[in-house]
Write a structure and sequence with these properties.
Blueprint lengths: L10 H9 L6 E2 L2 E2 L9 H5 L9 E6 L2 E6 L2 E4 L14 E4 L15 H17 L11 H4 L12 E3 L8 H5 L5 E11 L5 E8 L2 E8 L3 E7 L5 E5 L6 E13 L2 E8 L2 E10 L10 E3 L9 H7 L11 E8 L7 H10 L3
Antiparallel strand pairs: 1-2, 3-4, 4-5, 5-6, 7-17, 8-13, 8-17, 9-10, 9-16, 10-11, 11-12, 13-14, 14-15
């Protein structure tokens, strides 16, 4: 048991010292930024050793904190409210390690000193802009990432596409995917899948060569669209998700240019759903359709198929055209 203050950033330099190696100064010819931690190895060896760290900066989803020489200031920030010094609480960790007694009113000078120190450290540590609760930082992307919203072909045998990359093809938008397949008398399996038990969609060729689109809303409800039995030969299957407003999609299944089934409304999938990315020719790991997984596993498609093409469409009609601009405007009210 030790009472000296340490921070998570101290773990790396501590391990380096205990192992007996130095931190690299460059990687692949690029200089590494100086580390901010301090080794706590001396306090591990000697319980009476002085603390190796005297200051630490904190910030997470708008909550702020700063430690210096036994004193700590913290805030519990409420989303969509202004940031101000009135939020700060002050604690003497030397005598109150569990932070039960807020000393902000009785020690205003110490509070002001640490608040100013937090501000300086935050600029040095690239903490700004603060997260005011709008979620702007989750949608703000550099211009070069626009390429991930372009049509994408995924070939059979490609490892499952990463979750975020897959989500950009469908997020808050209309989209469709097109799957060219070869059908034989024995054809069966997963043509394409995106998601898992917590929500997603998948296209299968089931018994009797019937194309079937399964949508899992993540709440326990499955929606199935099915077409007629296919003749042997080449076919093009298309699944369309039309964003009609109200955070919903209209589904349709098309075979060789003819729409064979539709469903008027299913809830859109958001952020953490689909959690698993796109797979072609199989539905591995956590499946979109659990009942089929129980009987057939990842259900590989057993015949030839070409690359499946995902085509992102327009945003839903009730979605703002400029999401980033809207969030900036909301957040500016709390600066």
């Amino acid at each position: 048991m030790r009472r000296q203050y340490s921070h998570v950033s101290d773990i790396f330099p501590t391990l380096l010292e205990l192992i007996g190696i130095s931190a690299p100064t460059s990687r692949n010819g690029i200089d590494v930024k100086p580390r901010t931690g301090s080794s706590m190895a001396p306090t591990l060896r000697d319980a009476s050793a002085p603390p190796q760290r005297t200051e630490a900066l904190y910030e997470m989803i708008g909550h702020r904190g700063f430690y210096r020489d036994g004193w700590e200031i913290v805030t519990l920030h409420q989303p969509f409210t202004p940031f101000s010094d009135s939020e700060w609480e002050l604690y003497d960790l030397t005598n109150d390690r569990t932070e039960l007694h807020n000393l902000a009113e009785s020690h205003p000078e110490k509070l002001a000193e640490l608040a100013a120190a937090w501000n300086d450290a935050a600029w040095d540590g690239q903490v700004f802009p603060l997260d005011e609760g709008t979620g702007l930082k989750y949608v703000l992307r550099p211009p070069e990432t626009e390429i991930v919203q372009q049509p994408l072909s995924v070939w059979p045998g490609t490892p499952t596409l990463e979750r975020w990359r897959s989500l950009q093809l469908i997020w808050l938008s209309s989209f469709q995917f097109q799957a060219p397949i070869t059908v034989t008398e024995q054809s069966l399996g997963t043509i394409a899948a995106h998601g898992d038990q917590s929500g997603g969609y998948a296209l299968y060729l089931l018994e009797d060569r019937r194309p079937t689109l399964v949508f899992n809303d993540g709440r326990g409800a499955l929606t199935l669209l099915a077409g007629p039995s296919l003749n042997a030969g080449e076919h093009l299957l298309e699944c369309s998700f039309d964003a009609i407003g109200g955070n919903t999609w209209k589904l349709s299944l098309t075979i060789d240019g003819v729409t064979v089934d539709e469903h008027p409304e299913v809830p859109m999938l958001y952020a953490m759903s689909p959690f698993e990315g796109i797979s072609v020719g199989r539905d591995p790991r956590s499946p979109v359709w659990w009942e089929r997984y129980e009987t057939h596993g990842s259900f590989h498609y057993n015949s030839a198929q070409g690359p499946v093409l995902w085509i992102p469409g327009p945003k839903a009609p009730d979605q703002p055209e400029d999401v980033v601009g809207l969030l900036r405007m909301i957040g500016a009210k709390f600066e």
